[in-house]
Amino acid sequence: MSTTIIQTFRPTLLIYTSLVMLPQVWRHWMKSAGSDDNGLLTASIFVESMKQQRNDPEFREAYLEISRYFFGLLDVDGDGFLQEDEYARSLANIGIKDISVARRAFDSIDLDGDGKLSLDEFCPALLEYITSEDENSPYTLLWGPLIE
Description:
By secondary structure, the chain is an all-alpha fold. It has a single domain (3-141), classed as Recoverin, domain 1 (Orthogonal Bundle). Helix content is 63%, strand content 3%. It has 6 helices and 2 strands; from the N terminus they run αααβααβα. The chain has a two-stranded antiparallel ribbon with strand order 1-2. The longest helix is centred in the N-terminal third of the chain and has 30 residues, at 3-32.
């Protein structure tokens, strides 16, 4: 597959994810939290929704599907793995530029220690990050340090 096709394909995945997958997850969040359908996802609605849905197989599969597409967007070189620099770039894009933070987060996800993140490491980490209440989970580092 040519580089041009791959570069064209990635935005298509993002569009698909935005138009098809995210609304599914959004509806789950809003429905489970008893939203008044005003479309606002407040912190309290989000937290209540996660408590109710964390074991829902349909929600988990939809979220893992989004995670797979997200992984593909972060995999800049298209090799099927996230290198530390690709992961660090994603953190830098959300304002976390400290490479030591990125390294700790990366290492917490790299379960086999091979220096790269596979889909099998990355996607469950995203799901665990959003659904777990375990403050000692290694995945609490996923998007950098938690702050209050």
